Amino acid sequence: QRLSDAFGCPVAMEYGAVEALGLAYTHPQGGYRLFWHSYLAEAERRGERWILRLTSLYPRSLPLVRYEIGDEVELAPGSPDRVVGLTRFERLVGRCNDYVELRDGTLVHSEAFSHAVRPCAAIRGYQVIQTGTELRLRVTTVGDLTADEEAGLRRRLAVAHPELEAIALEPVDALTQTIAGKT
What we know:
The chain is of the alpha+beta class. Helix content is 15%, strand content 40%. The chain contains three helices and 14 strands. The chain has helices spanning 2-7, 110-117, 147-160; strands at 14-17, 21-26, 32-34, 39-46, 49-56, 67-74, 82-84, 88-89, 91-94, 99-101, 107-109, 123-131, 134-141, 168-171. The protein has a five-stranded antiparallel beta sheet, with no helix packed on it. Strands 1-2-3-8 form a four-stranded antiparallel beta sheet, with no helix packed on it. Helix 2 packs antiparallel against helix 3. The radius of gyration is 21 Å and the shape is elongated. 15% of the residues are buried. The model has no long low-confidence stretch (mean pLDDT 90).
């Protein structure tokens, strides 16, 4: 509303994703309208929300075919559990790119680890590794972590969930990279 007031006209927000560019825009009557000429959009209910799938309708180097971008949306009340040819949705919920599932089923978003690690100046980089229910926090450091730094890190992790206070810390010289060079 502030932007509309500043410009003296209605303002729309665009919704997009790195893999699909612009997908939709906010509408003055509420909700979002999809750029239907660019994508065939589908929504399928998962719990209270719907996952979004896209099929590109224009030439691309890498065509998207029923591609789940990871975003969840909310459709109008009473919408069916599966919609093909979606042209609008009520609300964008977003996505949880990375999370850890704890033994009790709790999902912890990756940003919880970022917030716990960031205050520790000795840590240059980190990775959270989950194998089944086992969790490890791999860290590259400048020197060794002091007892106080480690205690502070564990205290901050416990804020996200008490189980994380006991996570295995694994100092490494370098973090594992994907084939694309990402850590």
